[in-house]
Amino acid sequence: MNRYGLTVAVLALALAGSGCTGDPAPSAAPKVSDGPTDSTLSPPSKARDFYVDPDGAAAQEVRRLEAAGRTEEAGLIRKIADRPNAIWIGDPDPHGRVADITSKARQAGRVPVLVAYHIPNRDCGQFSAGGAASAAEYRSWIARFAEGIGDRHAWVVVEPDALAHILDNCTHGGQAGERLDLLRNAVETLKKQPNARVYVDAGNAGWIKNPDDWIEPMRRAGVPQADGFAFNVSNFFTVEESVAVAERLSKGLGGVRYVIDTSRNGNGPARGAQGDDAWCNPKGRALGTTPTTETGLDRVDAFLWVKRPGESDGECHRGEPKAGDWFPEYALELARNAK
């Protein structure tokens, strides 16, 4: 994911056409445990208010290292495991997992950050390929996702890279319009849940060469109906670089708010790197600002760790772990380089 974009001319061509039909039947909803009601919870005001997954890959790595007596390395990985990371959902039926996570978070008095990641032709069939088989299947899937949240609190980042990928050839032949419709539908569906905050991924400072050309696609994707947009997801641009572009997007949409992924931007991007080397497990990167809603920036709702540090971007044509798998050496490098 997160390659750089093409041209405005390609964008204009890609936006022609849309369409989708059908509604496959959802499976039965699993029973979830009860916890404190969300009426007792306030929106997160500090990093500690976001949910920390006790069974994430980083937490499992800490337990493995401690059992092996590798306490120094375990301590480094705790810089990841003990902080709130987003939980990516791409399960064929998301209901059970989303319900389980939001229920556990409610019981802990925390708010989870979830990523909806199942758009058709996800990642243009590259390292993170997958997703729903059709537009109709995706509509059903996002409805099941929303049902899984119910009335519990959750922040949801909608479909990393899906909007920016309309600049790529994978959305030719009317697929760009369909994708925009699906993103808007996802926003509308998730926002029916009373305590869901929704941010549509809008790319990063390197992908968007001319922010003014990006306003209309974001509008069509439902960003004004959401709580805002997510920026720099899985990428490495600094907060300053991200804000410089995101503020232009925000102003073009009437001042909509946004969140920034700071999971791995502690050293900024790999300057001068090209192609996969720029975005796919680039060397020398570092953990960024710890997740918090206290950003000090007027329109920035939060710094989040949307990308889960230590999980691979993909094989990168170098034989590295596949996308989403734990990458021990990379995790240690991110932690060691953290300021």
From TrEMBL:
A GO MF label: hydrolase activity, hydrolyzing O-glycosyl compounds
Enzyme class: hydrolase
EC code(s) of this entry: 3.2.1.-
Taxonomic superkingdom: Bacteria
Keyword annotations from UniProtKB, A to Z: Carbohydrate metabolism, Cellulose degradation, Disulfide bond, Glycosidase, Hydrolase, Polysaccharide degradation, Signal
Start and end residues of each stretch annotated as Disordered: 20-51
UniProt-listed Gene3D superfamilies: 1, 4-beta cellobiohydrolase
UniProt-annotated catalytic positions: 123, 161 (proton donor), 313 (proton acceptor)
Signal peptide positions (record): 1-21
Keyword Transmembrane helix: no
PROSITE patterns linked to this entry: GLYCOSYL_HYDROL_F6_1, PROKAR_LIPOPROTEIN
Protein family: Belongs to the glycosyl hydrolase family 6.
Protein's UniProt name: Glucanase
Source organism of the structure: Streptosporangium becharense
